[in-house]
Amino acid sequence: MKWLSVTTLALIAPSHALIRFPCAQLVVDRLDPLVNPGLVPSPHLHQIVGGNSFNATMDPAKDMPGESTCTTCQFSEDFSNYWTAVLYFKAKNGTYKRVPQMANSGFDGVNAGQTVYYMQDGLYNFQQTSKVTAFQPGFRMYIGNVAARSREEVERFRQLTYTCLQDINTRDPQIVDFPSEPCPMGIMTALRFPTCWDGKNLDSADHMAHMAYPESGTFETGGPCPASHPVRMSQLFYEVNWDTREFNNKEDWPEDGSQPFVWSFGDSTGYGNHADYVFGWKDDALQRALDSPCYINCPTLATQDTAAMNACSKSRVVTDDDIDNWVETLPGGAVAGM
């Protein structure tokens, strides 16, 4: 299925098509309150952004905006949490090094983290804009298959991609597995969530069944929602820029010519790419933004500067993992290729 990059979308779309904003890094920790609630440590390492109420449990009954005292996101009414796995480089000698993150295009100075988007309407329905519904308190969802190791296993997830960055503004081509050659400006991962809600459940056992993709086409093309999931939500997606430049010397890559990157859960194919989301916008802030024309500057939302975003952080809970140096094993003991 063909979809357009965000750069292309921004050029062809009306100014109210999507909200784009940076979130600095909150913490890198072995916690996963969505898939492994209450488990300390969780099986693999994650990079997390958003409100500082993030914890191992994340009780849905809690008031996340009320629990948080700050957020790493540009819009200071957004105390949601957004997280993904962490990328590692595997050297010829079998040791691993965590790949750092870097700020996205237009967000210089933001400490690592990621870029978050909320699509406000279908881009090609210029004459007939479809209003989208904001997520509700207690809402959460997941996208991807951590166990996937083949293209066939990820076909149900239409829009989980990688881009080999030739420069900071590169967005195409997008592929579904790790790039096979060194990328001059790093690797970008893009993770786009389903956009149709069943209208009843804020979560589901697999954190996916309460959401669905349009019956045909994509959110961007105005594809209709299935009858089982009739409520059209905004499209949420993340871009994460992994700064692989220090690992671009082919002499350090495996002798067999295979690519050397591996997710923190051991996947060296790239097909296990996945992401988690827990809603935490204050009051009706997200719906206000979705109802109003805005892109990066949203007059209906309170905004904080880069210094405030970077100042919000959280101490790691799992401190036994060495996440800064070369290590013999991935945190949690995952084995590359598994």
UniProtKB/TrEMBL annotation:
<protein>
    <submittedName>
        <fullName>Uncharacterized protein</fullName>
    </submittedName>
</protein>
